Amino acid sequence: MKMWTFENPVNITFGIGALNAIAGIVAGRPCCLVTYDEKYFSELAASLISSIGEPQSVINNITPNPDFETLRDNCQTFANSVSADTVIIALGGGSVIDTAKVLASTDKGFEPVQQFLETGENETRLASYPIIAVPTTAGTGSEVTRWATVWDGKSQKKYSLARPSLYPTHAVIDPALTRSLPRQMTIYTALDALSHSLESLWNRNANPVSSNYAVYAASQVISALPLLVDDLENIGLRTRISKACLFAGLAFSNTKTALAHSLSYPITLKYGIIHGLACSFSLPKIMASVIGQDSACDQNLKRIFGPDLDTGVNNLEQFLAGLGVSTRASSYGVQKDEWQGMLTNALAGERGLNFIGSSEKVLEMLILE
Question: Which pick of 66, 108, 304, 337 has the fewest CB atoms within 10 Å?
Answer without folding.
Answer: 337
